[in-house]
Amino acid sequence: MLLRKKRENFLRCNKTIVLQHLVDEPRDDGGENMHVDVGLIRTAKIGDKESFSALYEQVAPDLYKFALYTLGNAHDAQDAVSETFLEAYKGIGKLRDESSFKPWIMKIASIRCKRKIGQYVKDRPNIDLDELLENPSDSVSLEEELTQKSAVYEALTQLNPQERMIVILSVVQGYTTKEISQILACPHGTVSSKLHRTLKKLRSMLE
Amino acid sequence: MFGKKRKDEIKQNTEFLRHKLLPEFDRVPLPDSLRAKNLINTLEQISQEKIELSTDKKTQSSRPMVFRQVLAYAAAFAVVIGAYWGFERWNESAIDRSAVPREKAGAYSAPNTNEVYAQDYEQLRDIISNLHCSLDDNDMNGTFGIVSDKWNPGFAGETQAAMPEVGKNELASDSAEDFGGTSGTGTNVQVTGVDEADILKTDGEYLYYMTGLDNASQVQIIDPVSLETVSQIEGDPNYQFGELFVAEQHLTVIYTDQVFATPIEASAADLVYHWPSGSVKVEVYDLQKIEKPTLVRSFEQDGSYVSSRMMNNTVYLVTSKYVYDDLTSTNVQPEDYLPVVCDAVGDKAAQPQTVHANDIAILPQPSVPCYTTVSAIDMINTSEPVQTKSVLGSNGQLYMSQQNLYVMGEGYDNNTGENFTEVMKFAVEETQIDFTASAQIAGRIDNQFSADEYEGNFRIATTAFTNGSTDNRITILDEEFHTIGELSGLAPGEQIYSVRFMGDMGYVVTFKNVDPLFAVDLSDPANPTVLGQLKIPGFSEYMHPIDQNTLIGVGRNTVALADGGVAQLGLKLSMFDVSDPQNPRESHKFLIGTSMSDSQVLYDHKVFWYDSQKSLFGLPVQVYTETVLGKDSYGISTEYSLDFMGMFVFKADSKTGFTLVGKITHCPDEPDDFNRRINRGISIGETLYTVSDHMIQAHSLKDFSLQGSRTL
Fold this sequence. Notes:
Largest sheet of chain A: none
Helix content of chain A: 55-70%
Helix content of chain B: under 10%
Largest sheet of chain B: 7 strands, mixed
Strand content of chain A: under 5%
Number of strands of chain B: 43
Structural class of chain A: mainly alpha
Largest interface: A-B, 84 and 80 residues
Shape of chain B: globular
Oligomer: heterodimer
């Protein structure tokens, strides 16, 4: 019924992954085991912008990647992350446990992503699959690299946004299904079952 | 066991995919614009706002309930007025939580129940915390989402298989009685007398249509003669989609989904802890002056929408609320782990309130930290308070008979690796609801048609997943919910695709490669017996009885492939002759389109329009034709074209079978314009009305000539 209708539109709208230049950069290690400076959080909570900025910098790369692969385009991902930045700053007073800063801000990011998706459904744009712009690395031949990347992106476009979110949070960012359930506000059993199915599906596409 | 096997599979697949995905992810740089130093400028304006916000205690009436300050107060006395407990406002900064006394609850014993009502909120909080502790990572505990994944069509068939010859049926069909349920409001319902909400309703005088365009719900009240919109109800822009009930000059609008991408935006930070699944809103309008409907009642309930029913002018609303928070953090508010309702009658400003502990039952073996909440709302006597009951431990789909309301949740036993269905039974009497019993049945249901109540007994058809295979069964429970009869071993290895109970008989369609239709004799509840079965290709997703001996099945045609798989073909209508239950037959069939063809009826029974007086039924369809372009190194290349999107109208007769008598479309020139997909049909007298998002049309039921058309 309505669920199916939404699904149809998701699949139609999210066929684009437009990537900007991929340039090697020093890795920002946000890390799931983010070491939280409780002092930083306390000062951020009372409105200190510097402290909040420092906290944000630690998680920003992961926020962006999550949004990029969920939404499928850099422009919307940037919107979602800058919105997350604002909302997190406004709302950090409501953060309950200092140690759960990262899942907390990830949750805000997932809500912002869901809103973007809500707009896709509303606008129903016609989207074509665009060419990917790549900067090949030195070690692998251009052809090999393009094939490898295309396969990954192609495979990801076959998933709906929720499935992508679950995969990214689990496989790439290492969250447990319990944490994913809390971040996405999705029942734990659903997360487990979707994770199992989606991993299987993805694997068969990439093998 | 499923649990361990799945865990291992997830682990292996995760490792494999990590190698593929991580290199890509690692190389994505953070754009400069997202560096803190660049975003920090936007904070200048925010600092000011933030200071103001922290001192502002006013509730903002334009936001949905979730963002008002929930009033909470624990009283030391227990007086129950209606079904909920009042709380006082508390000052966020002044509260000393250690000093909040536990509320005492009076002893409450519900009749005929082996379940326990909660003593106080601490008890509920403890149970939820414990349930969270026991949710092991990557284990399959808990309730699944109700998304069915049995639809696994394989790939499009390359050749059409020759269909077996089917004999003709000589039986007369003389009854004009509606053997499927009638609602009197134009909706195809399961049980006569128990109405189900829908987007299109009629009371015979007007048509009430809820459209969901442009992010806001809107109800249009349409004059069936002129097709003009007589009046319009603008929905709450914070909500989208919804369903309607209409009765005795009152219209109930149910908003089932909160929208987040609206100008009146809620802060995501607020949502993190409070009601991530949103809330459902019910509005009742008085239609005495049809040009100016008046809002007379507004009721909200937190959680996500399960379903609703209406009987004797009382609306029964069912929602489920999953508590994601493990409640171990500080500053946990009662509304974070308790169901909350809010009733505004007339103009009174309402206060959200947590449901009283005495009205929250706890399942003997709660499997998930989830509440199912049922509220009974009187549509006509708006001064009648709403009654609410909740159950902690499961959630699920809704079936309602004229006496009882059943919620059926999916559960998974991590120890045995088996699925079960948790059925919760509520006795209903007008606005009185009582949680009376619960039972665990092996297996999972297909949809609401999997359950039925007859002569006091509850019958339920389930598919059990055990030992890597499946088994289908029918279980019968008596009024006290004890199992009195059981039938298992129905089509092992297959799954249930549709069920229809009809009094002493039950018809079950299962499928893996071929579609057995089973005719089950239920006349002796202690001994359900399979009388006969029919095996044909394809499967039915929905079955509709047109007389005592005949069922229409709506589903898909399939063909078995050489490698043992199954290829889906187009849509299929089957007419089942069950006059001799030991030998059910497919007396007629009708095929529509090729593999891409689809109909919403496969997913939602309310889309099916049936007029028993005229023996006509309507099927919204998307018909694709396919052209094989050629063969290249990738395989066979096929082009699909959507040739028709609209409604096929059939005459159904057990003697002559299916006759296509009309084709109605709102988009003759652009069949792929989904705004013009016909969602519903309703008939008043000699006219058939069809609605899409874009327009409404009226056709004569005699010759299907177009009588009127209007863009909405």
